[in-house]
Structures are given as C-alpha cells and as structure tokens.
Specification:
By secondary structure, this protein is of the alpha/beta class. Helices cover 36% and strands 15% of the residues. α4 links the parallel β2 and β3. α11 crosses α13. The N and C termini lie far apart (56 Å).
Length: 382
C-alpha cells in the first residue's frame, strides 16, 4: 500500500523497536559495533560508515522525496561539498545566479582552486542553461525557490535539457521542503536539503541530506560520505526525524501565515517590491503553482529607502528574531546583503538584484495577528 505524504512523514523508516516495542525508535549513540568475527558484523561496523539511527533518517528522507536512496550529512554545506567531490579537475558546473551565499562561496572560493569551473546564469529561463552547456559540463545546480529573491525555475524544462546531454542535475529543495515540491518526480538526478531548516523545523539541529534514484550516483556519494566523513550524529538524525513528523502541518501554517503577511506588506507605502512565488505578479508564478503545493513560508521585500531603512526596520521588530537560518517554528528576520549573502561581492549582489533595502523573513507558525503587529513596530521605527 502506498501511503500519502503525511502518513509517510510519521511512519516511514520508523517502525517500533523490535526488542522493546518502543513506538519511537531508540537513538543508537554507539560509535562502533561488536563483530562476531573478523569482518562478520551485523550490518554495522563504525558510525561514520553507518549507524542505525542515521539509516532510519535516510530511509525516511528517501520516502518523502520519492527516491530510492538517502544520504545524510553533518550540514547542508557538507552535503553540497560532498556532491562536488564527485567532480574532477577540468569539469564544468552550471549554477543559478541567485543561490545561498555559502554555496556561492564554496563554488567560487574553494572548488575553483581545484580546477572545477562554474558558470552562474539566471536559471528562470531554461534557454540560459542550454546556452551555458559546454563539452565538459557535468552538473546543473538549481535552487528553486532561490535564496533570497525567491526566483522559480522550471525543473522539468531544465532536466529535459540535462538528460539529453547526459548531465547530472541537482535541486536544492531547502526553501520549498519535500512537502511543497518533488524535484525527483520532475526529472532531477538529485535533491538536496539543509535539514537545519524546514526538515528539522525547530532550530535545534544542523544537518543536510541528498536523495537520488540513480544507483551510480548513490554508490559514488555513499563512498564519499564515508571517505570524507561529514556525517550527522545519531542524535541530530533522531531530532530531524522528530521534526519531520509535523512537517506537513507546519508547512501549511507557514504558508497560511505568509499569505496574510504578504497582503499586509503589499499595502505598505514603504515597500517597493514583495518577492513570493505565488504572487500573481511574480514572473514565474505559473511555474511555481504547477510544481509547488504552496508558496512556502519565505518572504523577501525591498524597502524604498535602502539600507538604513532596512536596519531601522529590523531593529524595531521584537517577535521576529534577527538571526540567520530559516524554517523553524519561530519567525526570523535578516538582512541578506550583510548576513546570509555577505560573502557575495557587492557588485555581484547588485547584478542579480539583491538591493540595499532587501529584508528576508522566515515566517513562523505563531498567531498571524501577532506577527502583523510586530511588522507594524518595524515600520514605525523607520
């Protein structure tokens, strides 16, 4: 029997403990495992290589993303780095021009040192991806929706292009979550999450995951996961599974609150532009509505009076916590130019539209009237 998403989030990979009947599987904190003879183990040798709790989490994430294989990592950045380790000197990667600052930093400042080349293009137009393909292109890296401008790319159109050229494709699904978007069903080779965000959902863990249906990719990543060793602890794996149990209901509330806040922001004269995938005037709203279940819980907007206005607005907030990260039950706010995207050069930020007045909100699941009242305080502080 094939269960719906909400049911899989609670049950997949999380059967009751066989020995005790415990409904919640135990955390296997052991770093190593007894062998009955040399090379004769019971499925586990050493927790970097494999751990029962981590395996359960990987199985759960594979189920939620409709994939065969899940691989967990110590952070979203660790997952990103391990995928890049599949590449060789002289390989070429096409990446979206509006991605998380840490992703850009790793590609541009680290991987280029090892002879991997990167071309950053606006992936909202699949033609740009097609035009950027070279003979040595091995991977197309997408964020959709993007961080922080919430641009949306047509996953199916782009994966149709990559499959014709035998190129791997990866979708960073962190902003959408597997509840809102299923990149593997749209042809992606891999889907990646920072599980720190919506997967965990409670701002109490750091982690990452990659899911794939491709056996060859899985074998490469499983080797690199063990060889590089950037794996999560059993406790963080358990925390992520606990968070996932409420993922569906949380995502619905995030989106519901975001919709109300957008209505409010659109009426504010201090706001120049609101960025949200399901807004009718979003340039890719139709694509977003076709490949996403809801518009999600992330909102970005430009204040007309620039950086000083943004700083004063953020200083006036009380309920929205000024902090990096996103996807927790609590609402967060931040200033991308000096925080999450500070590693991107100023001239490049200007090119892609990260303006001096940009504010990013991660909308939590609090009472929406309280959130609106808090935004009022921010605007009153301008």
């Amino acid at each position: 029997m094939t269960f719906k998403f909400e049911t899989r989030a609670i049950h997949a990979g999380q059967e009751a403990d066989k020995e005790t009947g415990a409904v919640i599987p135990p955390i296997h904190m052991s770093s190593t495992f007894k062998q009955d003879g040399v090379g004769n183990h019971r499925g586990f040798e050493y927790s970097r290589t494999g751990n029962p709790t981590r395996n359960q989490f990987e199985e759960l994430m594979a189920s939620l993303e409709g994939g065969r294989y899940g691989l967990a990592f110590a952070s979203g950045s660790a997952a990103t780095a391990t995928v890049q380790l599949m590449l060789n000197e002289g390989d070429h990667v096409i990446c979206g021009d509006d991605v998380y600052g840490g992703t850009f930093r790793f590609f541009d400042k680290v991987m280029r040192r090892f002879g991997v080349d990167y071309t950053f293009v606006d992936t909202t137009d699949p033609v740009n991806v097609s035009n950027a393909i070279q003979e040595n292109t091995k991977l197309v890296w997408l964020e959709t929706p993007t961080n922080p401008l919430l641009k949306v790319s047509d996953i199916r159109a782009i994966t149709d292009i990559t499959s014709k050229h035998g190129i791997m494709s990866l979708v960073d699904n962190t902003f959408a979550s597997p509840y809102n978007q299923s990149p593997l069903d749209l042809g992606a080779s891999m889907v990646l999450h920072s599980t720190t965000k919506y997967i965990g959902g409670h701002s109490d863990l750091v982690g990452g995951v990659v899911v794939t249906n491709d056996e060859n990719i899985h074998e490469q990543l499983r080797f690199l996961q063990n060889a590089a060793g950037a794996v999560p602890s059993p406790f963080d794996s358990w925390l992520a599974m606990r968070g996932i149990k409420t993922l569906a209901v949380r995502m619905e509330r995030h989106a519901m609150n975001a919709s109300r806040l957008i209505e409010y922001l659109l009426e504010r004269p201090e706001v120049a532009t609101v960025y949200y995938p399901f807004l009718d005037d979003h340039p890719n709203s139709q694509v977003a509505k076709e490949q996403m279940r809801t518009g999600g819980g992330m909102i970005s907007f430009d204040l007309k009076d620039g950086k000083n206005a943004a700083y004063n607005f953020l200083k006036g907030l009380e309920l929205f916590t000024l902090a990096e990260s996103l996807g927790g039950v609590e609402s967060l706010c931040e200033y991308p130019p000096d925080m999450t995207h500070g590693s991107i050069p100023e001239e490049r930020r200007a090119e892609i539209g990260i303006n001096p007045g940009l504010v990013r909100l991660s909308v939590g699941i609090e009472n929406v009237d309280d959130l609106i009242a808090d935004l009022e305080k921010g605007f009153a502080n301008l």
